[in-house]
Amino acid sequence: METPPLDPAQSPTLTDAQWARLLAFGAHSEDIAAGDYVFRSGDRDYDLALVESGGVEVVRDALAWMGEEVLARMGSRRFVGELGLLNGQGAFLSARATEPSRIRRVSRTSLRTLMAEDDELSDIVLHALWARREALRKGTAAMTLKFLGERSSSDMLALQRFAERVDLVHKAVELDPSEMDATPGHDYKVEDLPIAFIRGEPILRATPGMVAERLGLSYQAQADEVVDLVVVGGGPAGLAAAIYGASEGLSTVLLDAVAPGGQAAATSRIENFLGFPFGVAGGDLIGQASLQALKFGVRVYAPCEAVGLESLGDELAITLSDQRVIRARTAIVTSGAAYRRLDLERWSDFERAGIYYAATQLELRQVRDSPVVVVGGANSAGQASLYLAANGCPVRLVVRGGDLGGRMSSYLVDRLREEPRVQIHTRSRVTGLRGATRLEGVEIDSVGEVDSRGLFCFIGADPATSWLPALDRDNDGFLMTGSDVAVQSLAQWQGLGREPLPFETSTPRVFAAGDVRRGSMKRVAAAVGEGSSAVASVHRALAG
Predict the structure, then answer these.
(1) How far apart are CA 514 and CA 222, in angstroms?
(2) What is the pLDDT at residue 278?
(3) pLDDT at 223 over 70
(4) Is the pTM of this model over 0.70?
(5) Residue 47 backbone dihedrals phi, psi, to 5 degrees
(6) How far apart, in Å, do the first and last CA atoms of the chain sit?
(7) What DSSP character marks residue 352?
(8) What span, in angstroms and rounded, lies between the C-alpha atoms of 405 and 192?
(9) Can you give the pLDDT at residue 448?
(10) How far apart are CA 381 and CA 282, in angstroms?
(11) Hey, is 236 helix, strand or coil?
(12) Do residues 210 and 203 touch, judged by C-beta distance below 8 A?
């Protein structure tokens, strides 16, 4: 079958001047014989390849259940590569010469330099890499990362959420246990699920961390490296801090224990964010911010959990859950908060089969057209209720307080009251759960037992600060910053000749922003503002 030509978005035509500037970022020219590979799927480190003459084809290698496929052919004055070049992902496709060719390689370091120094080329290359990534989702390239798991399994959902938030090309196959024997080409047991197939090789009982390690997305320190800034937490505050830090010349690492996005990525629709008059899905907003972070050279690692932070003279040591250590000059803690749970019998059982803390397309697939219960009285609960109702679910919104407008924006209150598929139960609590292997019903004290295939819990969160015992916290666990730092903690500042800067915690050069900080406004726009503002204080600390 003939390979269709790439559209101009994926293979832009460069002017003589643009091509000359692009070549300047590459190393020396290299001759490649016909049939030889420029890079192979599985290579942990590979380069952007500039085709000076000849031709290169991009190939999805043969898998156990399907043969090789040529996805694209690139002629002279074209560049070969994919978006994974920017986030550290290893190659999942191969590139080989179709005829004697001459190429020039642009290393990942040189590509980041290009992104920082040449705005015109940066836009051209980034648009092309992004367009290629979007096109690859629709074809067999997605089979290079395939998930096989039980429908409604929280472990399977975790893999899918990780892949979507990190923007990986992948294919998810959900099935019932009874269908295992009917799955062609797969001889596995139910207890092996979920399975991740990476270029055809299976990982049994896969977790996001296992997949990240195999794809090259886990943190790998460079020899004697000390970065300018480590941002711990990839929600709106963390992404904003990382983007502003990297765009202003700081070598920046962004860590998240799950994947970039935080609670914002779990929000089906944000109506009042500046610049989006028709609203924006949380996942879309985070996706664009993550792409922006890659453009400015932020090194993003997820899932990558920080478990300790220590000040060592002029450096900070951030310890990860696998005991690897990142050395940094400054850090911004944007670790957000952990979802609260209802104190109900069998809650942990149904967290794997019917209880959710987000309402996105992933969760919707589990409950579409089925009755659901949403618990909570703030904006996230209202947005989830409207999203689920708009997609065919009869919704019961359970609010503990008597005034729906007490913590929820008025525009959401009005829309909820007008939505016929939403029933609002104020002064109410969920008191019980029912079901065999998955959630089938919910007990509401003011109503009784109701059918429910999903319970969506939005009752707030507790600050994720237990890993920071040395920092000043208030009685609720939120980090104290700036003028709120306790007087008894200020003695260590005398040698610096200053007091804590805005957003700076009780430990010098450690800052906090977003939901984790005492006194912050728990809104997406406010978190973005805090993250970017904290970087201004980082610069002042480094200059001092």
Answers:
(1) 30
(2) 84
(3) no
(4) yes
(5) -115, 160
(6) 64
(7) T
(8) 47
(9) 93
(10) 14
(11) helix
(12) yes
